[in-house]
């Protein structure tokens, strides 16, 4: 083999090695160099992965009003979130158009002063749409019977300010003296496994309010 031929063979072999080995080396560097974009770090650290999953829910539970019906709350004025925060709960509700049926019921039962002067309470407030689910004759009967109406309305009130985190799985005595239960996390919280919170953690001067889509019925005694 001549020197020229030997030189050609060596150049060809070098080129083959470069073409074959270089991509493998680059792939190896890519796999070992930084797992930050691939998510491997979270798989290796389940605690960190769990924290990332739970953080948004916990942040939402501390972040004020939540839920689809909050969009119906006025943006300003006495019926807005800021306006309601300045007034006791019955007065605050009277300024909110989505609670007009409840306000009428509270007035008929003579509970305005009771709710306004109570300290640190939670009200699960049925919206107008919640009352609309009741047969009209049944609603009229309840509104016309002060004793039954008082029993119904006080069943929606708990004598403590409950934060969203308290509702994850809870059982609470109401002012009516029966128990109600809550479950779930923001934004999906239910009461008595039937009523959904549609606008939660609304603050008033003396209460936390959770607007619900179904009227709660106290258990028969």
UniProtKB/TrEMBL annotation:
PROSITE patterns: FAS1 (PS50213), PROKAR_LIPOPROTEIN (PS51257). Residues 86-216 form the FAS1 domain. Residues 56-69 have a biased composition (Low complexity). It comes from the Bacteria. Residues 1-27 form the signal peptide. Residues 40-55 have a biased composition (Basic and acidic residues). Keywords: Signal. Residues 31-71 are annotated as: Disordered. InterPro entries: Adhesion/Biosynth-related, FAS1_dom_sf, FAS1_domain. This is Fasciclin domain-containing protein.
